[in-house]
Amino acid sequence: MNEQVVSHSTQAINLGSRSFAAAARLFDERTRQSAVMLYAWCRHCDDVIDGQVLGHGQQAGDRSAGQARLAELVELTEQAYRGRPMSDPAFAAFQAVVQRHAIPRRYPLEHLQGFRMDVEDLHYQSLDDTLLYCYRVAGVVGLMMARVMGAEDEATLDRACDLGLAFQLTNIARDLVEDAAIGRVYLPAEWLAEVEVPASELAEPRHRRALAVLAARLVDLAEPYYASALQGLADLPLRSAWSIATAHAVYRQIGIEVKARGAHAWDSRVSTSRAQKLRFLLGGAGTALASRWMKVRPRPAVLWSRPR
């Protein structure tokens, strides 16, 4: 593997997501390398679309410019699958990962469709619309990560998708005000109508109490997806299961804190402390080990039917 590509990817994850970087260290070396390179591609695409750097400085952009950037990302992704030499380090990393793990082409292209929903300022009328967005920007990332960890069974992939959905529902709840400030509203319009808050006024402080109700609803909605995701741990290598269990606990705690803060959830960005991360790291080891002893169990009902 090209050391420059790996180094670039490692830098991207260390600067872009400390939580993911910490969880990735629990993987075996080969899995960690692939996970980091896949992350670098996802981070790069997100940054290109939003005109930001490693997840920071997000701003509302011109739709036509966004569409042009997206078209370029789609073309580069297609070229990576055609085996063309990639000069961009993020795409070189991506190409190495999809070739190494035989990641189906439809997954990254579906991920880019999630960015298209942002570029086109899609209106989310119902919960199904919001869940489709969550699937595209996070559920398919879970599917690709599961392939990196060696999972191929459809039931295990369903669990990985569920975890991605849970993560994104938590992200939406945490970032409601920040996203609304740049014109992005992922809450279903039907929910906003229930609390009589116009989408155009979502970021205004006077609506914080109503917003807290909807954020709590998102957090509660994520819970069965978090529970379902744990059912897939037994099908992963132990170190991978440990990493996923740790990330699972960290993100779930963020949602719990958003709900607990109520109308003050957006006074400062919700995150987990170093002490909490250490506790989740230790707890994740126990959860991963316990999953070995609970391998024979009924599968949970499908919560949201992902495209096949």
From TrEMBL:
Its cofactor is ATP. GO terms for biological process: carotenoid biosynthetic process. Keywords: Carotenoid biosynthesis, Transferase. The keyword Transferase applies. InterPro entries: Isoprenoid_synthase_dom_sf, Squ/phyt_synthse, Squalene/phytoene_synthase_CS, Trans_IPPS_bact-type, Trans_IPPS_HH. Pathway: Carotenoid biosynthesis; phytoene biosynthesis. PANTHER family: BIFUNCTIONAL LYCOPENE CYCLASE/PHYTOENE SYNTHASE. Belongs to the phytoene/squalene synthase family. This is Phytoene/squalene synthase family protein. It comes from Stutzerimonas nosocomialis.
